[in-house]
Every structure is written in structure tokens, then in C-alpha cells.
Amino acid sequence: MHDHVRTPDGRLLRVEISGDPRGRPVFLLHGMPGSRVGPRPRPMFLYHCGTRLISYDRPGYGGSDRNPGRRVVDVAQDVATVADALGLDRFAVAGRSGGAPHALACAALLPERVTRAAALVGLAPRNAEGLDWFAGMAPSNVNEFKTAFTDPERFVARLIPRSAAIRSDPARLLEELRRELTDDDRQIVSDNTIRSMLVRNYREALRTSPYGWIDDALALTGDWGFDPADIQVPVMLWHGAKDVFSPASHSSWLAARIPRATAVLEPTGAHFAALAALPKVFRWLLADTPD
């Protein structure tokens, strides 16, 4: 078991593997803020469908060293490095929320290795032509992303103390979000099992520093470093129609540009409905994967 992998530039990445040790590999890229211990399908499901689930902390989160100035595209090299350390040639990739653009980066940059990719409740590039990027987005996210894009120094100065407060009380983040959650999302995060999973995830994400979160936001609002239209592998774009944190229009924009995209819109779902969708998405990811 590899719980740490060293990158070519000397950084350490904290890795976690679950499910069937001899199963077909799927990378699951966490949200923002998030970590390798974030929400995932239940162990029994992973064993039943023969899945070896690989998750890791993006740089600056949890147990992974920071990579200052990273872009979304840089995830592909880190995923390839982890895959090499595990002796994996081919694998599927899924990303939820802030992890979704990173899953698309893997699909674009690693076409010979990624079998299929899934992006759940993700964002489109900040410079997406013809997309009103902030339309339908909750005020808190509009404020956060606009500040990250227009005044990164102010964004960093604000997020450092906020991260410290959430690190000491991870449930605080859920309370901050509660007023903007839809009824559907509020019901999902009120489930004790899911709430415990999210609190553990946020605690680990911010355990060592706020810079995973900071660098994620700057990367997502900056130049991604690749064009989603260049993706040639099959991609599923899953979104809840009532999502106010990353509006469904972002997935619609991507679906119109990614050649082999399958768009799935859940009419009654919102942002956290993606947690319940993961098993179905995993079945899709593995449908054409050779044993």
C-alpha cells in the first residue's frame, strides 16, 4: 500500500486506496475544500462492482505538499505519478465539484491512460465564451470567486482566518452553507452518516494549511491550461438542475463542446445530490473498462 507518493519535483502526495485491491482502478478527485477521505461510495458497493478506488489530497490539502501557482492542468501529472507508483497503466477518473475540472484535465492530457471520465456538479472555465459564469450562483460563491479572480491578495487574506475557524470546528462550514442550500441539499447533509463524512473531510482538508483551498480557487478562476474541446475520451457530465453552488449551465456549456460527452441532468437534484449519484456514475465509468 502506497500512502505517500513522491512527485518528480520532490513533493509528497498523500494517497488512500479503498475497495477491492484487485479491482479496476478509478481515481476520485475531491471537492473544494476537500481531501482523500471525502465522500465516496460505500465499501460494499466498491467490492461488489470490483472497484479499486484511489483518492489523494490535491497539493496543499491534508497530507500533500503545496504546489504554489498550480493550474488545473497540473493535476494530470500528479495523477500519472500516483498511477505509475501503483503500477497502473489504464484507469477511470471521476471528480466532484471542485474536483470535476481536474477530472476533465486528466481526460484531456492523458488520453492513452484514461478510459472514461466523469465530472459531477463541476464548473466551466472562467473565460467560457457565451456563458454567464455567475448566473444562478449563490451569493457566497459569487463573492468568493469574484474576489479570487479580481483581487487574489484580498481573497487570500480573507480565506486564511476563515480556514482556521473551520479547521477548529469543521461543522462550521456546513452551517455557513446552510442558508443557501436547497431543501433537497439540506435534507442530504442532515443525514448523520453524510454529515460525519463531510466534517471529517473538511477537517482533514484544512488540517495542515489553508493553501489547498486557496490554490484551488485561484486555479479554477484562472487559465486552466487546456481546452475541454480537446478531450477525446468518453465523458459523463452529471449535474443537479437546482445546483446554486456550481450552476447546471456550466455542464451544459461543457457538453456542447466535449465531443464524446454524455450529459445527465437530475431535475430535482442540487449540489450534494452528486453524492447519491456516485454509484451510478461508477457503473458508467467501468462499463467499457477491460478487466
Please describe what this structure looks like.
- This protein has 291 residues and is an alpha/beta fold.
- The protein has 11 helices and 8 strands.
- α1 links the parallel β3 and β4 (51-56).
- α2 (75-85) crosses α3 (100-109) and α4 (139-150) crosses α5 (152-168).
- The chain is globular, with a radius of gyration of 17 Å.
List keywords for this structure.
alpha/beta; eight-stranded mixed beta sheet; 11 helices; 16% strand
Can you describe this structure in just a few lines?
The protein is 41% helix and 16% strand.
> Outline, from the CA principal axes?
globular
What string, H for helix and E for strand, traces the elements in order?
A: EEEHEHEHEHHHHHHEHEH
Helical coverage, percent range: 40-55%
Treating each run of at least 4 consecutive H or I residues as one helix, how many helices? 11
> Average pLDDT, to the nearest integer?
95
Report the C-alpha radius of gyration, rounded.
17 Å
Structural class: alpha/beta
Q: How many beta-strand elements?
A: 8
Strand line-up of the largest beta sheet: 1-2-4-3-5-6-7-8
Q: Are there runs of 5+ residues with pLDDT below 50, and where? A: none
Determine the strand fraction and express it as a percent band.
15-25%
Termini separation: 21 Å
The main pleated sheet reads as: 8 strands, mixed
